[in-house]
């Protein structure tokens, strides 16, 4: 009797992929800086119209919200893959008990 390890391999691969996603998201979150607000004199109405109201982010800076979503996705991926490994272990145990 040959037992295929594909369920175990799939679960382990999913755990590793989720771990990589969590590590990348955590790195992005740790490297993200909050925008600094500089104290400026109260702008007049003419200067308010000339200045944009929102601060632009550099193109290479990751979005904090996207990093948090990636962190949650990685966690869910690891949890789901761990369930796959647990289920494969239970099935294998049942097969061994049945065979013995």
Give average pLDDT, whole number: 81
Give the termini separation. Answer: 12 Å
What is the rounded Rg?
A: 25 Å
- Helix-and-strand structural type: mainly alpha
Give the helix/strand layout.
Elements: H1 6-31, H2 45-50, H3 64-99
Helix pairs in contact: 1-3
Could you describe the 3D structure shown?
- The protein is built from three helices and no strands.
- It is mainly α.
- The mean pLDDT is 81.
Concise overview:
The protein has helices at 6-31, 45-50, 64-99. With 100 residues, it is mainly α. Helix 1 (6-31) packs antiparallel against helix 3 (64-99).
Keywords:
100 residues; mainly alpha; 3 helices
